Amino acid sequence: MRVLVTGGAGYIGSHTLLELMAQGHDVCVLDNYSNATPEVLNRVRGLSNGNVTDFTGDVRDPAILNRVMQDFRPEAVIHFAGLKAVGESEEKPLLYYDVNVGGTLALLHAMDRVGCKNIIFSSSATVYGEPVYLPYDEAHPTAPMSVYGQSKLMAENILTNWAKATAGTSAVLLRYFNPVGAHHSAKIGEDPKDIPNNLMPFIAQVAVGKRDALTVFGEDYDTPDGTGLRDYIHVVDLARAHVAAINYADKSTGARPFNIGTGQSYSVRDMVAAFERACGSPIKTKQAPRRAGDIAAMQADASRAAAELGWTAEHGLDDMTASTWAWQSANPNGYDN
Ligand code: NAD
Ligand code: UD1
Question: Do 14 and 67 touch, CB atoms closer than 8 A?
Answer without folding.
Answer: no
